[in-house]
Design brief:
It comes from Microlunatus kandeliicorticis. This is NAD(P)-dependent dehydrogenase (Short-subunit alcohol dehydrogenase family). By secondary structure, this protein is α/β, with parallel strands linked by helices. The protein folds into two domains: 51 residues, no CATH class; 281 residues, Rossmann fold, CATH 3.40.50. Helices cover 31% and strands 18% of the residues. The chain has an eight-stranded mixed sheet, with helices on both faces. The protein has a four-stranded mixed sheet with strand order 1-2-3-4, with no helix packed on it. The longest helix has 23 residues. The N and C termini lie far apart (54 Å).
Length: 375
């Protein structure tokens, strides 16, 4: 018989409808090969360390930890996961890490052939077509998942980064908002039955520290009165966090927990266009020779380090019973409402109260439902 023990405790002030604080206890068994297999999570209704869910947990991991570090010893066999954009850069590392831990991973990709080439050699994967800007594609992707079998992990990772020119989807929506928010909202809603069937699913929305400065343009979501690529990207990332807050509020009672994750600033190896290289140098992200600067404590990470917080949110028992939070550096981020400019030595990326505002989260949910229904 495997040896069973308690691997972590996290208390919070939610009780899933019961009175009093709850404590999440992640139970695992130690297999013959020494790997940990998560068995179940109990919610003990007892006053033993009430805590604010949005306060840091002080996990054993750091900004420099990798996805491999976070999943070391965990056995995800039997778990089904979806990763949108799971074939490119950060998404590819998340896919690799989950599959290596035993999860059955489906990569959702706009171009399945390109995804297959990028993932060549990885085992335990399926690749399915998905265009997040096309409602018909979203529904076609979700349909096979509604067969009664569970979906344990949904990682909404695909995004559009800083389009220099305004682009729109076929419905007329600005492309970053359409891809990062509208498409993932629609996909998540379509998959709710499968997530509910897991009896303990996690939805991870990959966001960015840009959510700190992002503003939802309530009267001009689609930039009809002038386009700014930074504002468009930041709006889409603020939307990711607000979506997380309201999704968790609505579905925690049926076992679906939502977490937003800032992976860090991850710069590719290049080559970069001269104007891009100059901007990266001014921000302290590359050196004079154009080589990427890696400084995890300052938020400048490798792909492997960036993927760590994502897989922590997706699979770590340290976060059992926790949702509606923003993760950074393998922990729940602190709330910092000070205005902090970005400098060559500092990239502000902690949470602030505005990006987690429950009223804005509800308002965005209602607006998004209207936009998705309108097609």
């Amino acid at each position: 018989m495997p040896r069973t023990s308690i691997c972590s405790r996290t208390s919070d002030n939610r009780s899933d409808g019961a009175d009093g604080p709850g404590v999440g206890m992640a139970v695992f068994s130690r297999n013959k090969d020494g790997r940990r297999s998560i068995l179940r999570t109990a919610r003990a209704q007892q006053a033993c360390g009430m805590r604010d869910q949005r306060a840091p947990l002080h996990t054993p991991f750091t900004a420099a930890s990798t996805a491999t570090d976070v999943l070391d010893g965990l056995d995800l066999s039997g778990r089904r996961a979806i990763v949108t954009g799971g074939h490119s850069r950060l998404g590819r590392e998340v896919t690799r890490a989950l599959a290596s831990a035993g999860a059955s991973v489906t990569v959702a990709a706009r171009n399945p052939d390109r995804a297959a080439a990028a993932l060549d050699g990885m085992l335990g994967l399926a690749i399915e077509p998905l265009d997040l800007t096309d409602p018909a594609s979203v529904e076609a992707f979700a349909r096979p998942w509604l067969d009664g079998r569970p979906l344990h992990i949904l990682i909404n990772n695909a995004a559009v980064l800083f389009n220099p020119q305004l682009q729109r989807d076929r419905r007329g929506h600005e492309l970053a908002f359409s891809t990062s928010h509208l498409g993932h909202f629609h996909l998540t809603q379509a998959l709710i039955p499968a997530l509910t069937a897991a009896r303990g699913a996690r939805v991870v929305n990959v966001t960015s520290g840009a959510a700190r400065i992002g503003q939802i343009r309530w009267d001009d979501i689609d930039f009809t009165t002038g386009y700014d690529p930074v504002a468009a990207y930041a709006q889409s990332k603020r939307a990711n966090v607000l979506f997380t807050v309201e999704l968790d509020r609505r579905y925690a009672a049926v076992g679906i927990r939502a977490l937003a994750v800032h992976p860090g600033v991850i710069i590719g190896p290049g080559p970069h266009r001269p104007e891009v290289l100059s901007s990266l140098r001014d921000q302290g992200l590359v050196d004079e020779q154009g080589k990427t600067i890696i400084d995890p404590a300052a938020g400048k990470k490798t792909i492997e380090q960036g993927a760590a917080s994502i897989v922590l949110g997706a699979a770590s028992p340290l976060l059992d019973g926790i949702g509606g939070v923003y993760l950074k550096d393998c922990d729940v981020a602190v709330i910092d409402d000070e205005e902090r400019p970005m400098t060559a030595d500092s990239i502000p990326a902690d949470a602030n109260s505005a990006m987690l505002d429950p009223d804005d989260a509800r308002r965005l949910w209602d607006l998004t439902e209207e936009l998705v229904r309108a097609r």
